[in-house]
Amino acid sequence: MSNATTMDGTPGGAHAAVQQAPLLEVNGLSVYFDTPRGAVRSVDDISFTLSRGRTLGVVGESGSGKSVTSKAIMGLLPRSGRRIEGSIVYDGKELTSYRDAEYRSLWGTDMAMVFQDPMTSLNPVMKIGRQITESLQLNLGMDRQTAKDSAIGLLSAVKIPAPEKRFNEYPGQLSGGMRQRVVIAVALACGPKLLFADEPTTALDVTVQAQILDLLAEQQRDRFMAMVLVTHDLGVVAGRADEIAVMYAGRIVERASTRSLFGRMKHPYTEALLKSIPKLSSASHTRLDAIGGSPPNLIDPPAGCAFAARCAYAQPRCVEERPPLVADPADPSHLYACFYPVDSAHAAGVRAEAAAHGELVNAHPGLEAFPQTPPPFDPSTMHGGTN
Amino acid sequence: MPEPASSAARRKLGIGGWICAAWIGFLVLVSLVAPMLTAEPVTENGRVVEGCGTGEGLPLYDPLKCSDLDATREQRRTGQAVGEFKHLTGVDKSGGDVFSATVIGTRTTLIIAFSSIALAALLGGAMGLVSGYLGGKIDMIFSGLFDVMIAFPPLILALLIVNTYAAIPEDPKLAEEAINRRVPGIILALVVVATPILGRITRASTLTWAGREFVMAAKALGARPLRIMLREVLPNVVPALMSIALLAVGVVVVTESSLSLIGLGVPDGDTSWGTVIASGAADLRRYPHQVFVPSIAVILTICALNFLGDALRRKFDVRESAL
Amino acid sequence: MRTLATKAARLVVVILLLTMVSFLAQSLLPGDPAELIGFGADPEKIGEIRTELELDRPVPVRYLSWLTDFVTGDLGDYYRNKGGTPIEGVKTALPTSLLLMLYTQIAALAVAIPLGVLTAYRADSLFDKGANIAAFLALSVPGFVVAYLLKKYFALDNNVLPESGWVPLTENVGEHFKHAVLPVAALTLSQVAVYFRLLRSDMIATLQEDFITMARAKGLRPRRILFRHALRPSSLTLLTVAGLNVGTLISAAVLVEQIFKVPGMGFLLVEGVFSREYPATQSFIAIVGILFVLINYLVDFLYAVLDPRIRHA
Ligand SMILES: Nc1ncnc2c1ncn2[C@@H]1O[C@H](COP(=O)(O)OP(=O)(O)OP(=O)(O)O)[C@@H](O)[C@H]1O
Ligand code: SF4
Ligand SMILES: [Mg+2]
Known about the structure:
heterotrimer; B: mainly alpha; MetI-like fold; two-stranded antiparallel ribbon; 4 strands; C: 2 domains; binds adenosine-5'-triphosphate; binds magnesium ion
């Protein structure tokens, strides 16, 4: 896709000086699932590139397709009932046609994943040491003792106290935060070049969230990995990603360098996300319930802008026509898909009027203005997602 | 919750389910009608002139009264059991028609199987319901009782009961009385075997339902425990109980035959699938058909019961998770 | 440790109740047990039997004295069977039965585990559907029918395996296994079906777990994922059911021992029933019951070994 940009143009980052071809190029990726009620388009025509040493933050509320995107690239989606379109080029190799056996040569050694819930992502009946050493032995051909030494090294690298002792323990004997460190150690074991971290802290206490994120950032820097950091919290990626992609209903609605995104925010949905960043004091599982309404049905998506039913700036045009992803003339690497971006005159007018009425724009959806009624508010879909 | 169960059940049963249900219905019909279809052999000077394979008479030969020894002789000579004379599946060593015996034995087998499971479902169902709903000491006693009863392998427990309650002594005076006690003894044994199994299922199911909102609501409205148990909990527990009870009928049919095979089954003078199998098993080399013909009936019946039980359980599970 | 102690206490209680039930059954015999046992013997002999069974003493006292004898291995004498005492019978029959069941469990698991794992991996494939139908049919065929079919085909019609009988392992290994094949096969079929169905559904659930995706993302081969990662967490229900299933297995074994004339506990038991050796029969029943309870207790231990979540709870 022509408007796919590399992130090497953006300032900052420890290895900004290193120029190289991108490690991962995703172009026009779409993922469909066949369900009894029709095909669900979970990911819809998304594109981005990522180079080594870089972090891409993927942000969006529950169900926006973040996990499906990561799993599609990793080749971890179920084989039956799903369809992938577009291209995924990793290190010069086209992955969309890869079979499991071919992917296997990449898993662990080239790309790895840290899952959302450390309570379920470790095998409960296998010692944690073994869970690390088995991939070392099988993928890197290490002997038992070398693998054990490396594993203990990894455990201490992810700051697990008394790694020799922990080596022989079972996941059940560790706290959530410790388990997530183990998951990270497992993921890092074979020195992957690309790491997916899918909401790595959602299931954890607020107090340990920052520690885990810092650990990930540190490892990413030290190992010069490319990292995709998935979260529903803009605050998490603010200081840790080089570039941010905001997803809504399976599409990227805004993509820019972190600085540009926060500096010249374009998309009303991004603005709404920013307003909903949980305060440090609030509960750890706060989802984006500050945005009223819920995402559209992915089986039969609306013809126009998917956010229209919830957008404070929406106009009749938004319902009829889908806004394309366009580049900001002032900064061609800043892409957004909106007819009336946050910094447009129209948006400013809406905000002024709302301020006059003492309302907060985007804290409530502008429902009255629209013909289609959104599905009734269902608290379970907003808070669910954490298994 | 009350649902339009009938239409949903019909849809879920499917063609296989209907065939299975039809087979069970057919067996019930057979056990009612078969005795009417047997012919009293007409004898002249001690020789059978009509019925029992002479080509005359009704389709079934009473296995206890008819002996077509000619057929047995012929069968032994040719080594062929099937298709000889008028005997569809051959005869036994005293000339009894195996097919007729199987058809006629259906009645006793079904009476034993259904009555024992009906009693066990009543008893186990009541115990499980009370145990699960009231909890406390009653629950402890009933659960403990179930545990001990289940600690016996089923056939061993049945054997123990039949052998004490309805052992047939050598003394002919005592024997006659014991023979009359045999079938009730078998039923008793099977009730004892099945009750803890059905009781446990009912108890578990009751526990899951007793915490539901509508039960709480009934409680809050001041309904009496007995009323709640019968009106609110029981209807929801019945599917689970029924699905296991169907499987249990199958187990009981097998146990009936098994008891015959170890000499503790339906006594001489009566015919059941078990007695036919057992007398064939005594000389498997010469009368294998006598083992396998009633066995086919046993297998088909268990197949049907398992299929229906599975279907019911699936349906029940769907309801369970849908709530 | 505490739970183990409670479990042990429970075990003792269940065993006591079990012996009580099998003992009390004897006093429910219709008529005078001594008359029943000694039918046809002269009154003197019947009087002797009566004294030996302590029939004039109250039931609890009789139970206690029977229990002490039972625990010390004194199972009394046969009244009619010639040759041997009940305890001698048990000494050879018990190992025979245990061996028979051990072979059956090994054979059943050896078939059911790969089958369950593979069908779960390829759920809804043609192979999976076929295996499920086969399992359903296998569960509908009573063990004794399988036994008679095997006996007729392999022993009577084709004479490739012995029709009946048993050779102890210590006597002749080859003959031992030759004689064991048919009874074990007859017992195995339905066990395979039970284990296979259970393992398959558990495996299907386990394969949905995050840690399986994680194992895939580590680059492990499917075989390693299936057998090293998925099998163990899936085998816990299997183990419990295997324990409970021993009850069904013992029941089936009674018949199969009868059919193949294997001198195991079931054979001994049925022999006792036929020859009206009531006291010995009650002891045999108690022994079989205790065996069953002990096996289930053992399963609880194994459970803890297999599942660290329980061990470290
Ligand atoms: N196997 C599947 N079959 C059908 N639909 C699926 C499947 N997997 C995901 N989906 C759908 O795809 C959409 C995107 O899901 P995804 O898990 O990517 O969301 P997410 O952004 O990761 O949300 P969360 O924050 O809850 O993790 C959802 O609507 C989900 O229902
Ligand atoms: S202004 Fe229109 S196009 Fe932009 S996000 Fe809102 S609804 Fe979509
Ligand atoms: Mg997700």
